[in-house]
């Protein structure tokens, strides 16, 4: 079993109103150091194989087909 | 003209859509359930609005990958007209039948109100009952209607006349790029739009501006 983490983030240049709202809320809480905030998603997945190359290939296909909308999002895969 | 309405768990505008199609065409549409892969012979397939699969992951993302969508894709390729309204539009972009993406409204708020649409291309199968440049009333009700496409895609769809409806000046409710409210595919037989024309088709709705869209798609007189 391989544990994997997929991180999906918005591409540069894509407006992120939720990130903006969080940025504003952090500022309102008094965190003066806050710069830009971008919101994303994290998926923790268990892949039932011992073959890292296969797991990576499968995860890439999962990202392309479902986990990320590549029109607006980037994804990154890390294996545990 | 025969029509069909797709029913998926979480869609909630299907009955409004069935009522509109029945009243305008005089014939009740057939209904297609999510697991069906054999779609009957119809001229127009409609994916109505709602919150398919709870809008989990991304709006329309799960629905777009259900077996019924493969069948709809095949029908669209064969030239059958497909209309997606609201969640239906989100499903069509997630399924790759239309370009771009629909993101959270710039205001972060769910908007439920009446806006105005400009018919920017009256030469499509979905808009020919309107005049070019006509301003029509239409309700919207959505949280994720903020249309986005990269610069190249935008150039292409604008250049091809694929933008059919734009929010009229000052009425963009969601931050959509170029005020885009509805687009067709390159072939012109698949239309996606965020506003709900099915909710403005008779006097009881307070107006009938939405009727022209169905009259166009169903090839009947708008009346």
Automatic annotation (TrEMBL), chain A:
Checking Pfam families in the record gives: PurS
Signal peptide coordinates? none
**Under which pathway is this protein filed?**
Purine metabolism; IMP biosynthesis via de novo pathway; 5-amino-1-(5-phospho-D-ribosyl)imidazole from N(2)-formyl-N(1)-(5-phospho-D-ribosyl)glycinamide: step 1/2
Q: What's a single GO CC term here?
A: cytoplasm
Enzyme Commission no: 6.3.5.3
Gene Ontology molecular function: ATP binding; phosphoribosylformylglycinamidine synthase activity
Subunit structure, interactors included: Part of the FGAM synthase complex composed of 1 PurL, 1 PurQ and 2 PurS subunits.
Give the similarity note: Belongs to the PurS family.
Q: Would you tell me the protein name for this molecule?
A: Phosphoribosylformylglycinamidine synthase subunit PurS
Automatic annotation (TrEMBL), chain B:
Active-site residues, Swiss-Prot/TrEMBL: 86 (nucleophile), 196, 198
Q: Kindly list the places in or outside the cell where this protein is found, as annotated in its UniProt entry.
A: Cytoplasm
Q: Where the protein is mainly located, per its record?
A: cytoplasm
Q: Look up the EC number in the record and give it.
A: 6.3.5.3, 3.5.1.2
Q: Mention any one GO cellular component term assigned to this protein in its UniProt record.
A: cytoplasm
Q: Kindly give the Pfam families that the UniProt entry links to this protein.
A: GATase_5
Q: Which PROSITE patterns match?
A: GATASE_TYPE_1 (PS51273)
InterPro entries (UniProt xref):
Class_I_gatase-like (IPR029062), PRibForGlyAmidine_synth_PurQ (IPR010075)
Q: Does the keyword Cell inner membrane apply?
A: no
Q: In which pathway does it act?
A: Purine metabolism; IMP biosynthesis via de novo pathway; 5-amino-1-(5-phospho-D-ribosyl)imidazole from N(2)-formyl-N(1)-(5-phospho-D-ribosyl)glycinamide: step 1/2
A single Gene Ontology molecular function, please?
phosphoribosylformylglycinamidine synthase activity
Q: Name one GO biological process term.
A: 'de novo' IMP biosynthetic process
**Hydrolase among the record's keywords?**
yes
Keyword annotations from UniProtKB, A to Z: ATP-binding, Cytoplasm, Glutamine amidotransferase, Hydrolase, Ligase, Nucleotide-binding, Purine biosynthesis
According to UniProt, the reaction catalysed is: L-glutamine + H2O = L-glutamate + NH4(+); N(2)-formyl-N(1)-(5-phospho-beta-D-ribosyl)glycinamide + L-glutamine + ATP + H2O = 2-formamido-N(1)-(5-O-phospho-beta-D-ribosyl)acetamidine + L-glutamate + ADP + phosphate + H(+)
Q: Its function?
A: Part of the phosphoribosylformylglycinamidine synthase complex involved in the purines biosynthetic pathway. Catalyzes the ATP-dependent conversion of formylglycinamide ribonucleotide (FGAR) and glutamine to yield formylglycinamidine ribonucleotide (FGAM) and glutamate. The FGAM synthase complex is composed of three subunits. PurQ produces an ammonia molecule by converting glutamine to glutamate. PurL transfers the ammonia molecule to FGAR to form FGAM in an ATP-dependent manner.
State whether it acts alone or in a complex, and with which partners, per the record.
Answer: Part of the FGAM synthase complex composed of 1 PurL, 1 PurQ and 2 PurS subunits.
Q: What is this protein called?
A: Phosphoribosylformylglycinamidine synthase subunit PurQ
Q: Which organism is it from?
A: Rhizobium giardinii
Supply the source organism's classification.
Bacteria, Pseudomonadati, Pseudomonadota, Alphaproteobacteria, Hyphomicrobiales
């Amino acid at each position: 079993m391989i544990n994997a983490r997929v991180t999906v983030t918005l591409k540069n240049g894509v407006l992120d109103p939720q990130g903006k709202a969080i940025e504003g809320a952090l500022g309102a809480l008094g965190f003066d150091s806050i710069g830009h905030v971008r919101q994303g998603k994290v998926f923790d997945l268990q892949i039932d194989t011992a073959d890292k190359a296969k797991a990576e290939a499968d995860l890439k296909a999962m990202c392309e087909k479902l986990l990320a909308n590549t029109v607006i999002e980037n994804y990154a895969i890390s294996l545990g | 003209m025969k029509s069909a309405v797709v029913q998926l768990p979480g869609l909630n505008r299907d009955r409004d859509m069935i009522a509109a199609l029945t009243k305008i065409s005089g014939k009740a549409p057939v209904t297609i359930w999510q697991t069906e892969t054999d779609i009957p012979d119809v001229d127009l397939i409609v994916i109505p609005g709602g919150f398919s699969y709870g809008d989990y992951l991304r709006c329309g993302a799960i629905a777009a990958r259900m077996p019924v969508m493969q069948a709809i894709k095949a029908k669209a390729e064969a030239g059958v007209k497909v209309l997606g309204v609201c969640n239906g539009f989100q499903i069509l972009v997630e399924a790759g039948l239309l370009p771009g993406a629909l993101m959270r409204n710039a205001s972060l708020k769910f908007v439920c109100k009446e806006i105005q649409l400009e018919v920017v291309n009256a030469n499509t199968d979905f808009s020919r009952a309107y005049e070019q440049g006509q301003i029509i009333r239409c309700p919207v009700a959505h949280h994720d209607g903020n249309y986005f496409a990269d610069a190249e895609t935008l150039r292409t769809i604008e250049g091809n006349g694929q933008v059919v409806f734009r929010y009229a000046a000052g009425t963009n409710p969601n931050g959509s790029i170029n005020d885009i409210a509805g687009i067709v595919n390159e072939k012109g037989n698949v239309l996606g739009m965020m506003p709900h024309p099915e909710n403005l088709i008779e006097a009881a709705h307070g107006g009938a501006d939405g009727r022209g869209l169905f009259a166009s798609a169903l090839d009947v007189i708008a009346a």
